[in-house]
Amino acid sequence: MNPRLSALHPYPFEKLRQLMAQAPVPPADLAPINLSIGEPKHATPAFIVDAMKNAMAGLSVYPPTKGDPALRGAISHWIAQRYGIAPPNPDTQILPALGSREALFAFAQTVIDPAAGSLVICPNPFYQIYEGAALLAGAQPWFINAQENLNFGYDWKAVPVDVWQRTRLLFVCSPGNPAGNVMALDDWKTLFALADEYGFVIASDECYSEIYFKEADRPLGGLQAASLLGRTDFRGLMCFSSLSKRSNVPGMRSGFVAGDAALIKQFLLYRTYHGSAISAVVSQASVAAWGDETHVVENRRLYREKFEALVPLLRPLLNVEWPDASFYLWAKTPYSDLDFARDLYGATAVTVLPGSFLAREAHGVNPGANRIRIALVAPKEQCLQAAHRIARFMEKH
């Protein structure tokens, strides 16, 4: 076996299963409500389902690794419209992917030299795929802690020079998981300057980009930031996005990678061997999804209603606020997040994710400690019921 596999940590939800096994059995009259997993529960739009049904003839052909030209064109058009920039070249700057998770992991394998003592800078808390991708590529993750006083952003200037010198890849997530914070243009300007100076690549995870609350206040994206700063070739930048949360199709496994043409070329070479092509069935459904915004506006409305209902209830109890974007609440707990999540489930049958499961201890602290992530993915009625149960639990504790 690959000895690097032994370096991987258990996934957060495996830790959660073990923790919940220690919890008291919840009252029998309370139906379980799971708000721990960021899996969209809103209905998949019918027109996407219909597009997939109408494309079944595509099962009889091997899909091209580079992706269907029509899909690459649809993605390029969507990027241009969404971010107000010139459309990326669909032939050289875009690759369809089997969701952003697959692409984020695979991309690290193409840009890391395992013999060079490479570092991969990861936000902390973070999506565990970043860490696993770094370790299995032969690099070591270096964690930069989110700071509440920076809107859960990062003090990039505090990273030591010797760390930057060994860095080959930097992961960012905006809107962030779990805090929902959005990177500003100044953050991008700082990172681009550092990438130019030290020669690392930026991988920008933007899978939550379409879950926001004001139609006129859309989160800034990496390609958009690069364009605004005159980096129209997107050098050193790869952005990853997905239909899963935007269009409520997590099981379809459809997303894209877009950015630096030189990086795309090498990633395509890797994928030729890796075997990560999107079938014609999924491609046609994806073209339909990227081409429609009405269902995405409606999706945001459903999330906004849940935040409007829950934040006033939970703010005085868990010191929770609206995020900039995404469908998570990043709430403080009055005592250990692990104990709180276990006790909450035992008393209320509501499952949340301990924040420390999403982070590592780095520089003397675990920035997820004494926090929980609440995913507002269930229907509004269930989320509201969960909030009332949490409120009663807090009143007793």
UniProtKB/TrEMBL annotation:
Keyword Ribonucleoprotein: no
Keyword Phosphoprotein: no
Domain Aminotransferase class I/classII large, chain residue ranges per copy: 33-390
Example of a GO MF term: pyridoxal phosphate binding
Domain of life of the native organism: Bacteria
The entry's keywords: Aminotransferase, Transferase
Cofactor(s) listed: pyridoxal 5'-phosphate
InterPro entries, sorted: Aminotransferase_I/II_large, DapC_beta/gammaproteobac, LL-DAP_aminotransferase, PyrdxlP-dep_Trfase, PyrdxlP-dep_Trfase_major, PyrdxlP-dep_Trfase_small
A Gene Ontology biological process term: lysine biosynthetic process via diaminopimelate
NCBIfam families: DapC_gpp (TIGR03538)
Annotated protein name in UniProt: Succinyldiaminopimelate aminotransferase
